[in-house]
Structures are given as structure tokens and as C-alpha cells.
Design goal:
By secondary structure, this protein is an all-beta fold. The protein has no helices and seven strands. The strands form three sheets. It has a three-stranded antiparallel sheet, with no helix packed on it. The protein has a two-stranded antiparallel ribbon with strand order 3-6. The protein has a two-stranded antiparallel ribbon with strand order 4-5. A hairpin with a 5-residue loop joins strand 4 and strand 5. It is rod-shaped. The N and C termini lie far apart (about 75 Å). About 0% of the residues are buried.
Length: about 90
């Protein structure tokens, strides 16, 4: 019957993969015997890859009698932008 629970398996719809590289590098600079400076650079999503979100999995809205959802199966959003963080610390 229309708009009733079916017998589909759980997690039947797979979304796109997630690809993210976080990298960091650091360099220590000795100044005196008990004093050193550390420079650090962190690259979050270093290759600036855009990751798509999961598709919409709702087929019908059962709250109002089963109106079909037009976005069913569509990927409508995503995320991903490079962020660079630089830091300098002094240890003594």
C-alpha cells in the first residue's frame, strides 16, 4: 500500500566519500641554552577538497498524509575550505 513502511534494508543509500588531509610542520629555533622559539604551521584541509554531504533520505513526509519529498535522493550541500593556522611560541 502507498505511504506505508516497506522492507528496505537499513543504510541502503550510501553517500559520497569524505576526503580530508590535515598537515602540520614545525621548526625549533634555539636562542640560548634554556630559551627556544618554536614556529608551527597547521594546514586544515590542505588540498582544499570540497566534500559533498549525504543525500536526502526522506521519501515522504508522514505528518501530513504522505506528501512526496521532491529532494529525495538529492545532494544539497557540502563543506570544505582550507584553513591555515600559524603559531609562534617561546619556551624558557
Amino acid at each position: 500500500t502507498p505511504w506505508t513502511w516497506g522492507n528496505s534494508a537499513r543504510d541502503l543509500i550510501w553517500g559520497p566519500g569524505f576526503w580530508n588531509w590535515d598537515m602540520s610542520g614545525k621548526k625549533d629555533f634555539p636562542i640560548r641554552e634554556a630559551l627556544k622559539a618554536e614556529f608551527r604551521a597547521d594546514f586544515l584541509d590542505a588540498f582544499n577538497h570540497f566534500n559533498l554531504a549525504n543525500p536526502v533520505t526522506v521519501i515522504a513526509d508522514s505528518r501530513d498524509g504522505g506528501t512526496p519529498v521532491a529532494d529525495s535522493g538529492a545532494v544539497r550541500s557540502g563543506s570544505g575550505q582550507r584553513a591555515i593556522q600559524l603559531s609562534l611560541s617561546l619556551s624558557f
